[in-house]
Amino acid sequence: MLSLDILLATPLIGGAVLGLVGHRDRARDVNVAFSLATFAAACALTSRVVRDGPIFAWDHAVYLDALNVFLVALTAFVGLTTSIFSRPYMRTERDRGKMTPPRLRLYHSMYQLFTFTMLLALTTNNLGILWVAMEAATLTTVLLVSVYRTAASLEAAWKYFILCGVGIAQALFGTVLMYMAAERVIGPEGGGLLWSNLEAVKAQLDPQIITLAFAFLFIGYGTKVGLVPLHNWLPDAHAEGPTPVSAVLSGLLLNVALYAILRCKVLTDGALHGSALTGRLMMGFGLLSVVAAAFFIMRQRDVKRMFAYSSIEHMGLMTFAFGMGGPIASFAGLLHMTVHSLVKSAIFFAVGHATQKAGTQIMDEIRGLLRISPTVGWGMMLGALAILGMPPFGVFASEFLIVTTAMREHAWATPFLLVALGVAFASVFHRVQPMVFGDSTMKRLAHPPALLPVFVHLGIGLMLGLYIPPYLSAWYRQAAAMLGS
Amino acid sequence: MSTLLTQFVDLLGALLLILAFAMISQRRILSMIHLFTAQGVVLTLATVVVGVVTHQPHLYLSAFMTFVLKVLLIPRLLHRVVDRLDIRWETETLINVPTTMLIGILVVIFAFNLAMPISRLSSALASGTLGIALACILLSFLTMITRSKAVPQVIGFLAMENGLFFAATSATYGMPMVVELGIALDVLIGVLILGVFLFQIREQFDSLDIRHLEKLKED
Q1: What is the ipTM of this complex?
Q2: Measured between beta carbons, which residues in chain A are less than 8 angstroms from residue B178?
């Protein structure tokens, strides 16, 4: 399968090439070129899966179905737009002396390797390789977060490494337990870590082992999703790293971690024969994250930290939706995954340009973006409105579906959801409004910002709120059906 | 023959647990590295024995990998780091070793209770090993929590990986080779990155005390 080979080989080769020449001036364009090739391969692969249904490749090592192929396309797309955004961003950072040539080389190389680990985690059929890829993603992003080498960024990276390292170690223990349960059914030679094999025999897996395994897997990957109370690393890592890194962390990494939980949930539900354990666990932690994050948002002064907490809130909402299960809630969860990653990365693009102009991330010191650069100002305003769930945007559609399903099936959760969404709306809007309007003392930047990605993302977010193309909704429905009830 | 070897695996598991306890109470960085190396030796032996009992040849390869990585390479890297940072003889004032030990005992009881129903089902050799592995993981976690210096934290982190590895070899017959290679690679790269970080932290903060790393607060 050529498109699959290209999809995985391109970012890997890109990482190696940029590790050698990543400090050159043209490296920014080379980075975009590699991301573009990856995206093209992802498109080819996606159209094939849409046409032919789920496929195996590489002797069952790779399994692609409706659930992961849509995330592959999304990951490659956000990877591409972020690389376009990072061209002028990194140029400005270099001019200001924050990025020296060795740092640029590290940044570009790790950016491609990070894309590789994400795509590997998504496409692999092997739960062990999934773990290896998630850990490798942690390692690459740790280097990306610490790239400025300031005291704060080192602290953020250290915290990120230790917390996620410990968290993901729990997931490895869960994987071992899962393998142990599989060995009893499949035998030591039968590829007991392959997800498709496990799915085939999931009803025979020992419920006791699987319950414990899921608990460990949920804690482990939940740390990477940023679920409260395991979220401590997330705001620091978002705030102290370069802004393109914040965009891919929020837009991609959190999604992939949630995807890992979903894969394990399908197996656990099968083994427990309709027990609601996984659903309750996910609903509980999801709701806790939504509520806690909404109140944390209120207290933030740093713009990137505020939107990082907003990511925790939205990841909580998705976890809650998948916890409810059923065709509508899972559909809404998948839709929310898509629009959140598009809109949140668009916001980080706009925020990146705004903070570069203002020279600070403190919200009280950023004023009057509209005066100095209308496009950045409108990008930020529209992005904030979109992420807060204002009607024509896609976030509204998915949040509406989640809240109405909650009302029907779990009425007790609705007031918590509504209060949290209201609090988040009030605090974010209250902060963004003066940043966009009002007077300004900021100076123009030497390099024109890349605003295409911002408006392309917001445009797709808007489209998904008004009209979901039939193949896309069929695709979501297939994935939702696979996730079960 | 086989029963004897099975008991030998249990014995090695017990040794691993004792080493994990020793790590909690150890003040000197150099001794911690020695304890970590000893854990690596025990793990290698355990993997070889499990390989002999279950006739799984790939376990020999994984034992060899453990030996190279956890007995030779990583301890050597750690020695070089402490030499270069000149903290070879540094000690750490640990608060309340007896209390920590008591908590450690509770952790072990908890781990055994959690693993008991599963151990009975286990088709693999020794029934106690899963509990031991889980106890080692949690004890290493405890080591990390109680330390305020960066290097001991890193050693605690690596010891946790040892516990996981013991779980993988003794509770199952070892993970598939690709996965084991991947994990080994991740661990190695992780150690290298942490090593670089140690130098950068020292440069930035003039100290390796991670209590300095508490500037970023929720506000």
Answers
A1: 0.91
A2: 126, 128-129
Q: pLDDT tens-digit profile of A183-230? A: 888 877 667 788 888 888 888 888 888 999 999 999 999 999 999 888
Residues of chain B in contact with residue A162, where contact means CB-CB under 8 angstroms, are 144, 153, 157
- The H-or-E segment that residue B63 falls in is helix B58-66
Confidence class for position A171, pLDDT limits 50, 70, 90: very high
Query: What's the length of chain B?
Result: 219
Answer yes or no: do B193 and A139 touch at CB < 8 A.
yes
User: Do A172 and B144 make contact, defined as CB atoms within 8 angstroms?
Assistant: no
Q: Give pTM, 2 decimals.
A: 0.93
Confidence band, pLDDT 50/70/90 cuts, at residue B183: confident
Nearest to A332 by CA among A308, A314, A313: A314
